[in-house]
Amino acid sequence: MLTDAVLAGLDPEQRTAVTAPAGPVCILAGAGTGKTRAITHRIAYRTLAGEVNPRHILAVTFTARAAAEMRSRLTELGARGVQARTFHAAALRQVRYFAPRLLEGRAMPELLESKARVVGLAAARVGVRADRTGARDLASEIEWAKSSLVEPGEYPVAATKALREPPFEPAKVAEVFAAYEELKRRQGVIDFEDMLRAAVWGIEDHPDVAEQIRAQYRHFVVDEYQDVNPLQQRLLEAWLGGRDDLTVVGDASQTIYSFTGATSSYLIDFPRQRREAVVVRLVRDYRSTPQVVGLANAVIRQARGNEARLRLELVGQRPPGAEPELKIFPDETGEAAAVAKKCRELIAAGTPASEIAVLFRINAQSETYEKALAEAEVPYVVRGAERFFERTEIRQAMIALRAAVRSIPGETPLVQAVVEGLAATGWQREKPPPGGAAREQWEALAALVTLAEEYAKSPTLEPIGQAGAVQRDLTLSGFNDELARRAEQQHAPTVAGVTLASLHSAKGLEWDAVFLVGLADGTLPTTYAKTPEQLEEERRLLYVGVTRARQYLWLSYGQMRSSGGRARRPCRFLPQLERNSTTERAGGDRSRKPDRRRPQVSSCRVCGATLLAGADRKLGRCPTCPSDLDEDLYERLKTWRATMAEELSVPAYVVFTDA
Ligand code: ATP
Ligand code: MG
């Protein structure tokens, strides 16, 4: 049976979810327990069993990359034609499709590129002086309001109720909000939330549209349901129209978008709202080593949010790996250099660069790592597709490729046409420049060629933004359309390299090796997090970060931001995990008498890692640099470190000495 293959490789609880009959299904489970796998298999199972037509399924994922992964996984399982999209992409498609009817011939409004800019203009109109940061903060406040279905007039009350910390007086924010809406209307542009709203009102106000949409979408699946916001929920309900063939999966401990209006309450309340729902809980973690799982449990154990009462400890299923430790560097540059060096080592030892990620709290941290990796000649990609299509060389390349349609003979095979078209921008396939920013641009353009290759030959590649079996146009102009669709949906091609990403954009993904960097108070949690709720969200972010690692997890921070600054403390959510790991270490080795003399602190001259001298006070080589150490010494140091960790209240640190 085709369905047997779909059920193989699932545990009993996952099977319950996969084979549940039509109707509401809810999987509540921690990271790495196979939620995404379960819903993907549920779709394949129902399709292959002939229970549902793949064309009638809409799977909603959180990122375009997750959607693409789900589609390719479904194809592997033998289920084609399922629509897997983000809320945004699904709404865009719907609005586009119905625009001619709903707009009665008027042009579809353009999507606003920079919300902050228009918000800045709106602020000026109503006499609110906002600099760039102010405009950005106002923009996110407006985003929160719109995602929470709050109108300008309702803002002050709603913001107070939701314990928002607006950048200006609530009444002022409301004025800016109203002015912003007015400005957009006059300019004939819409923003991201308007698009979702248009999709909602399109259905709610037009019975014929509703009928057509509901005939198309009959079975719904939503991944990462803990981060759905009221606007998205309303769209989901509009699609459902009272029907209940809906599978949702999520982990309340991974709610990391509540600052934009997301709330885990829809997930948590689901079983109560739909009493007939099949509810499944998963606890086996198939992603990470037991060490990483232990750390993840320790990070989230102290959580006080909504999720605390629902949380189940994860149970690691994979073979053991290295103990994660926190490495402290004198500054961020030293930290980044050490990360780059370790990346090189991992790659040299056989880990593909694409299986490594460096994750940080805020995008501004990216640059230091981009530099360090470029210097170490480690290929990398910055995640966040908008970045890819916003890159100057990509924009220029897209213009050049459109121009090339006229100059390159129609019969030239696609990949060659793309290479020739790119040559107009000075790019040469055979001549990759050596490391650095030169090199990075070359890689980005090379990614376009790789995409052309996939587009030309892969029978499984589904054109982005179109459902199922569409006849693909394999000419250069067909490829240009594909690029335009991708740019619009922020669907970047995969470039082989170490991933640099914010913790927010790492959701749902996994890598063999993960570097969590900048784990200092003030960065994680960010200084902007003040209320208990905001701090809880920061804790969940750390949990999301930790649980991205399959095999190897590195935790670090640089003590000084700049020379002369105050030494920073480790992320406050880590001591709990440290105590957890140190008791375990010490517990295993009670017979040894710990060395209680004070250590000597210095830093490695090569990579900058903090070094603590052992009992004999001789400083040794640091473990991020190649170092031979005999087992006995290592054991001794472990015990010693456990005690010292408590004394210094540093979670863990690099400790090595000569014997
Ligand atoms: P997250 O909360 O981070 O989104 P998740 O619960 O969605 O995680 P998945 O991404 O579905 O977890 O699965 C995590 C990893 O474990 C994947 O590599 C997946 O292939 C693997 N996996 C899931 N279930 C099983 C299983 N029953 N047997 C073996 N591997 C599994
Ligand atoms: Mg998942």
From TrEMBL:
UniProtKB keywords: ATP-binding, Helicase, Hydrolase, Isomerase, Nucleotide-binding
Segments forming domain UvrD-like helicase C-terminal: 290-551
Residue ranges constituting the UvrD-like helicase ATP-binding domain according to the UniProt record: 8-289
GO biological processes: recombinational repair
Annotated region described as Disordered, given as residue ranges: 562-599
This protein's record includes keyword Iron-sulfur: no
Matches recorded under Pfam families: HRDC, UvrD-helicase, UvrD_C
Similarity-based family: Belongs to the helicase family. UvrD subfamily.
Protein name: DNA 3'-5' helicase
